[in-house]
Amino acid sequence: MINREKVKLMTKIQLFENHEKEALKANRFFQHDYLGLYLIRSFLAYVVLYVLVLTVVFLYNWEELLRKVDLFVFMQAGKTILLSFVLLLIPSMIVSYIIYWFRYRAYRRKIKEYIVNLKQLNAFYQKDDQKEDKKADKADKAERFETADKFSDTKTAEKFNKAETYEEKT
């Protein structure tokens, strides 16, 4: 017979596994490792974006830069580029940290709910196993009594039952 509650739990679990793949990935990491990984990714994305923007600005101002070929101008431009890189990097990393911290927390809440559902499903299966074990035990006892009844004397039947009991213990 189909248990509706078990089917509902199985559906919730499957939907979670299909739609929350990021949460399952995040579950493989400790919070510190998850944040570190995504901060490194954010840093690399920031560097690539900064270099692209710098390249576009350089190409746009190409003629003007060639006219002012002076070491002092290039030193000043280098300082400005480095300073802007650092001043933009710090808020970018702070925002990334906050975003990924909140994401990790949200994923952990979802994973906790997922684990509760898995435990409930496991409890359903354990109840089913216990019911099947009880049925099997009853069938074994009935079979033992039938076999014992086949023996004519009671001493042979008792020996048979003791042997069966000994086999179950070992």
Structure description:
91% of the residues lie in helices and 0% in strands. With 170 residues, it is an all-alpha fold. α1 runs antiparallel to α5 (71-150) and α3 (31-60) runs antiparallel to α5. The protein is rod-shaped.
In brief:
The chain is an all-alpha fold and about 170 residues long. The chain has helices spanning about 5-20, 20-25, 30-60, 60-65, 70-150, 155-170.
SSE map:
Blueprint (H helix, E strand, L loop, with lengths): L3 H16 L1 H6 L4 H30 L1 H6 L3 H80 L3 H16 L1
Percentage beta strand: under 5%
* End-to-end C-alpha gap: 35 Å
Characterize the biggest β-sheet.
none
The residue ranges in which pLDDT falls below 50 over 5 or more consecutive positions are none
Shape: rod-shaped
Q: How helical, in percent, are the residues?
A: over 70%
Helix segment tally? 6
Radius of gyration, whole Å: 35 Å
- Structural class comes to mainly alpha
Report the strand count.
0
The residue-averaged pLDDT reads 83
H/E topology pattern: HHHHHH
Looking at this protein, list some descriptive labels.
rod-shaped, mainly alpha, 170 residues
